[in-house]
Amino acid sequence: MTKILLIGNGAREHAIAEAIIRSGRNPRLYSFMKTNNPGIASLSEKTCIGRYDEPEAVVAFARDTRTEFAIVGPEDPLSHGVVDALKAAGIPAVGPPRALASLETSKSFTRNLLEKYRIPGNPRFRNFPSLTGIEAFFDELDGVVLKPDGLTGGKGVLVQGDHFQTREEALAHCRDILKTHPSVTVEEKLEGEEFSLQCLCDGRTVVATPPVQDHKRRFVDDRGPNTGGMGSYSCADHLLPFMDAAAAAEGLEITRKVAAAILRETGVPYKGVMYGGFMITRSGVKLIEYNARFGDPEAMNILPLLRTDFVDVCRAIIDGSLDRLDIVFEKKATVCKYVVPRGYGLPQSRPDAASASSRIEIGDVQGARLYYSSIDQRPDGLYMTSSRAIGVVGIADDLDEAERVAEGAVSAIRGPVDHRPDIGTGRLIRKRIDHMRKLVGERV
Ligand code: AMP
Ligand code: GLY
C-alpha cells in the first residue's frame, strides 16, 4: 500500500487526486486542504483542513498518516516552505522547496537566471528596486509590462494597452508597486499566441506533457478582466493549431536549460513541475513566466490523458529516475470549460457580482469529466462559493467533438452559472491561427 499526501483544494488537485487513485500501486490518498473540496474528499481516506502557511500542520498530518510522499498542488504551500518542512521530517515531495519555488514567486529570480546562464527566451527586461532609471528604460521599449516582484497569484501583472495607456500611468503604477514590493520588473511587451508547457522534472531530466492553451479573460472573444483561467484545450497531435513541433521543442529546451541552471546555481535538484507560460512571437518562443506547479485549468487537460502510472511518475521525480520511465499520453483532444458563478471576475460593486453561495444541480453530463473547485457540499446539495466552481472536461478524438462533450456537460449544470462557450470552438481557433499568421506569415 502506498500512502500519498495531496496538498491543495482546487479542481487541479481534484484531477491530481483522480490520477493517483487510478494508479495500480494500491494508493491510499490523504488530503490536506484549505477548505473542503467534496470531490477530493470523496477520493481520500482521510482529510485535514488547515492553513497553507503552517507547514508544521502539514507535517503533523503527514506523520499521523505515515505518508510515503507528498504532492503539492498550488503555489501557496510551496512559497510557505511546506516542502522544506516535509523534507526536514524525512518525507519527500513532488514540488520544490521554497528557495526553488522562486522560479514562480520572484519574476526577477527567473529573468536573472535566464540572463546569467544565457538561456534564450527572455524579453528585454530590467528589475528596479526604486524609480531611478525607470523612465530612461521606458524610452527604449515600444510597450511595457510591469510585474511586481513576489507572489501575486498571476493577477498583479500590468500590461500597457490593457491595464494602462500612458507613460505617466506606468510611472504611477510603478510607484504603487514599490510601496508594497521590494522591486518591480519592467519588460518589453511581447505580441503573439501563448501556450502552457507543463514539464515534469526530477532535477536532471525534464519531460514535457502536451501543450495547452489557457483562456485568462473572463468573457467571450477574450474580453473583460483577467481571471485565474476560464478554460483550456489541447489537441490530439500534442501540438496546438497555431504551433509547430519546433516551437514545442523550443519551450522544452528552454525548460531543460533552466532546470540545469537551477541545479548549478543552488546545488539543489528541482523535483516537481516546471510550468512555462510561453509566447510564440515574430522572434521565436519567449518566456512569459514559470510556475512551480501544474496549471489550473491546464492540469485537467493533461492528467486524464496520462497512460503511465501517475504514482510511478511521482516516484521517478522524487528518486531522480525520470530518464528511465516511458511517459505516455493518449493522443486525444481535450477541452476544459470552467463553470463559474455569474458574478465571478466582476467588480464587487456590480449588482450581479454577488451570485456566489448559490445552489447548483448537476444533471447528466454524459462522458464528460467534472473536477470540483470552489464547491461546498451541504446537506441539501452542492453550493458554489465566490470563485470558479467546476472544471468540465470533454475528451475525444478531435477538438470539435471534445468541445461538444464539454458544452453538453456544462448545459447539464443548472444554477446562476456562467462559462465561456467560445473556448475550443473552430471560430476562436481560427482567430488564433490568423493572429499567428499575421505575425509570422505562412509558417503556421
Ligand atoms: P503572468 O502572471 O506573468 O502570467 O502574466 C499574466 C499575463 O500577462 C500573461 O498571461 C500574459 O498574457 C501577459 N504578459 C505577461 N508578460 C508579458 C509580456 N512581456 N508581454 C506581453 N504580455 C505579457
Ligand atoms: N492557468 C494559469 C495558472 O495556473 O497559473
Q: What structural category characterises the helix and strand content?
A: alpha+beta
Number of folding domains? 4
Distance between the termini: 49 Å
Helix content: 25-40%
CATH-derived topology of the largest domain: D-amino Acid Aminotransferase, Chain A, domain 1
- Label the overall shape: globular
Mean pLDDT: 95
Radius of gyration: 21 Å
Catalogue the unreliable spans: none
How many DSSP H or I helices? 14
Strand content: 25-35%
- Which CATH architecture of the largest domain is right? 2-Layer Sandwich
CATH top level of the largest domain is Alpha Beta
- Count all strands and give the number: 25
List the ligand species.
Answer: adenosine monophosphate, glycine
Please explain how this structure is put together:
- The chain has 444 residues and is of the alpha+beta class.
- It folds into four domains: 2-94, Rossmann fold; 124-188, Dna Ligase, domain 1, CATH 3.30.1490; 191-324, ATP-grasp fold, B domain (D-amino Acid Aminotransferase, Chain A, domain 1, 2-Layer Sandwich); 333-430, Glycinamide Ribonucleotide Synthetase, Chain A, domain 4 (Alpha-Beta Complex), CATH 3.90.600.
- The chain contains 14 helices and 25 strands.
- It has helices spanning 11-21, 38-43, 55-64, 75-79, 82-88, 102-105, 107-116, 134-140, 167-180, 245-266, 298-302, 310-319, 399-410, 426-440, and strands spanning 2-7, 27-33, 46-49, 69-72, 93-94, 125-128, 144-148, 158-159, 184-188, 193-201, 206-208, 213-214, 217-219, 223-226, 231-234, 272-281, 284-291, 333-341, 359-362, 369-372, 375-378, 381-384, 390-396, 413-414, 417-418.
- Strands 12, 15, 18, 20, 23 and 25 form a six-stranded antiparallel beta sheet that branches. It has a five-stranded parallel beta sheet with strand order 3-2-1-4-5, sandwiched between helices. A four-stranded antiparallel beta sheet has the order 6-9-7-8, sandwiched between helices.
- Strand 13 and strand 14 (223-226) form a beta hairpin.
- The chain is globular.
- The model has no long low-confidence stretch (mean pLDDT 95).
- The chain binds adenosine monophosphate and glycine (GLY).
- The site of adenosine monophosphate has 13 residues, from strand 17.
